[in-house]
Amino acid sequence: MRSLAKNVVAFTTLFIAVIYVAEAQTAPAQNPVQLENVVNSFYESVNDQSRLYTGPQYEAYDNTIKGSANLDDASTFVKGTIQYDGFVYTEVPLMYDTYKDVVVVTPPRSNKNISLVNERVQSFDLQSRHFIYMEAAKDFNAGFYNELYHGKSQVLVKFSKEMQAANTNDASSFKAKTNIYVQNKGKYFSVNNENALLGAFADKKHDLKQYMHDNGMDYKLNPEQTAAKVAARYDELVDNMYKMTAARK
Q: Where is the signal peptide (predicted)?
């Protein structure tokens, strides 16, 4: 509440100052300078107070390493939406380092990048994907996961990168890795093929296998989309079963 109050005061101060400068007629030549000074002071105030720009300084990689550590090999910041400490920020330039598993931001009017504190990031949307922070569980590590589907069941994708050590012929390089997880009835399953996917929904395995066949779905060709559709179909089948049971009573 204290931080919010400070921001309200800062915005109010800026608003009043801008009106004052705009209406001043005695020294019009100085107005742009006065306005710039007010805006600079405002940005400095907001930068110090912002909940978003908190975390350790992000250290860049040695430029001799081949490839990029970032999601989709992005070389620049991309605007996205992030929920941090319960506050939602939109149109924020973000980078997602999948090797360190951190979200990176650049404070306004700064040339230093910051790694956000993972546990304080509830979710973020970047490059047409929705990521959520997951705490460590029996079957996977804590970190950011792309949430493909969330009903009674859930489908998550973990994007990560490994560092390939340098040898006599090649420099060090990043190697991308993707893992899919399915949650059913509170248990998470690592899914890397069709059998593992159907095994996560064992009680409806036959129905789901027929569903995949009828819709020409091939896990190998599109594992992420297939997993999401199968999970959604599973939830639909279970819901229908409950409705039929209730109707008989």
A: 1-24
